[in-house]
Amino acid sequence: MVNIRDLDPDESASASFGAELRSTREAQGLKQTEFALLAAYSNSHISAVETGRKLPTLRFARAVDKALRTGTKFERLCREVRHQTMLEGFPEYVRYEGHAREIRLFESGIIPGLLQTRAYARALAQAAVDRGVITQEQAAERVDFLAERQAAIERTPPPVVQVVLDESCLRREVGGREVMLEQFQRLIEFARLPHTTLQVVPYSVGARRAFDLPVHLLTLPDRSMIGYAESQFQGHLDRESQFVDSVLAAYYQLQNEALSQAASVAMIEQVRKGTP
């Protein structure tokens, strides 16, 4: 068992959270068992977080703030912990995404997060739990975080959103038939919005497809642009004009190779009905 007295708060955000929680609890004269009752969490859970053996979730952090009457202090610390578990560059990207004027996305294999239904997102998160990558609590937090991102772009006026999906996004079943039917309906409704564009790159494009990995491009209120690209284990955020310009040019090429929006929606309808 980790000794909390040996934890270095500067070692990581999770260690800092655990050390701060223990310090605040003790400053209020609360024993761990007493605090566990106030926060409605088990004593073992409190101990695991305080010793850095368990990552805090937003739900837990909010319970801590309520029990200790600390405003949003631990919620803010928890967000720092969560950002450490994301790919490099992604937390900063999300902050920009929330107020971007234009959003351009390309995705292969899965529906991009901003277009996912809650059921689809839950199925992906549960698969990560089953693989032992995250805990059940972290899965719930992942879904909640995605909902926060989606809510951030549902504003007035809304951003222009252009999405290009590889055909594999439609063909790969996630969560079962009912989940996919709901997800297909979400895509169709998205395509009908006045500020959106949805296109599918069919398999027939082959090697002419411009990207092999997911791509995100944002146009900010000052008309500057940033690009974000990621692999399975690494993310890269870039504001350099040379990088952004090259990605944007490739994105335009990708759109030219993709089906029109009408043809893309027709393909989604075909896949939804199970027709070739």
Name the features:
alpha/beta; 276 residues; Endonuclease, Chain A; 434 Repressor (Amino-terminal Domain); 12 helices
Describe the fold and architecture.
This protein has 276 residues and is α/β, with parallel strands linked by helices. It is built from twelve helices and six strands. It has two domains: 82 residues, 434 Repressor (Amino-terminal Domain) (Orthogonal Bundle), CATH 1.10.260; 151 residues, Endonuclease Chain A (Endonuclease, Chain A). The protein has a six-stranded mixed sheet with strand order 3-2-1-4-5-6, sandwiched between helices. α7 runs antiparallel to α8.
Brief digest:
With about 280 residues, the protein is α/β, with parallel strands linked by helices.
Q: Strands across the major sheet, in which order?
A: 3-2-1-4-5-6
- Give the beta-strand count: 6
How many structural domains are formed by the residues? 2
Tell me the β content. 5-15%
Structural class of the secondary structure composition? alpha/beta
Number of helices: 12
Order of helices and strands: HHHHHHEHHEHHEEEEHH
> Low-confidence parts lasting 5 or more residues at pLDDT below 50?
1-5
